[in-house]
Amino acid sequence: MRRIAARLGVSTMSLYHYVHTKADLIALMDNALMGEILVPEGQLPRRWREAISAIARRTRDVFARHPWALLSMRRAPPGPNAMRHFEQSLEALQKAPMGPEGKLALLQLVDDFVFGHSLRTAETRAWRDGDSNLARSAEALGQQLFKTGALPRTAALFARVSSRNAAQHHQWLTEERFEPALAAVLDGAARRLSRATRNGRSPISPRDR
């Protein structure tokens, strides 16, 4: 609270006039972030795949702008905008060819993908933009291990990535693979969840593996 008050140029006690506890502040911050994720009214695509993809992209973009939220907002209680986000997600899947359980499972799967992708992207950017000495030390360690022959597959993979295109390689590992990976998630999920719904089974039944 003191740091936030200092950033705002006000006293800590004056900030407590508006926000009573740290938990209240986190709840307000989370609600603001969830507001950014909401697709503006009237702009949600009609087809379910395009609609859920639009929500996934907005979620990714919010975490790209606010990577600290990936960990800092874990304990935030759901606020009004979180409820609106869930309602909008259900609206996006209204015409999807699966039952209620399948839709909920698909939303969870897409969320897992977006959160995981965003976390990996944040880590990659932090590594790329962080301490150059640490990066060089890690590279030196890797080269030593490669020479021992203990990591033949890893050595072969990274031998194809020259230092000249390393930055492009890291870029592909994060931002550029989002769209094809999201499409693959939706392709597989749609087939499995639709099949489970037709067969009257749970969308997470092991028989659908």
Q: Classify the helix fraction into a percent range.
A: over 70%
- Based on DSSP secondary structure assignment, what is the total number of beta strands? 0
Distance between the termini: 49 Å
How many strands, which pairing sense, and closed or not: the largest β-sheet? none
Give me the number of helical elements: 11
Word description of this protein:
The chain is an all-alpha fold and 209 residues long. It folds into two domains: 95 residues, Tetracycline Repressor, domain 2; 112 residues, no CATH class. It contains eleven helices and no strands. The longest helix is centred in the middle third of the chain and has 30 residues. The C terminus is likely disordered.
Write the layout of secondary structure elements.
Elements: H1 2-8, H2 12-16, H3 22-37, H4 48-65, H5 69-72, H6 80-92, H7 100-129, H8 132-148, H9 152-159, H10 166-173, H11 178-198
In short:
By secondary structure, this protein is an all-alpha fold.
Key terms:
single chain, 209 residues, mainly alpha, Tetracycline Repressor, domain 2, 2 domains, 11 helices, 70% helix, flat, disordered C terminus
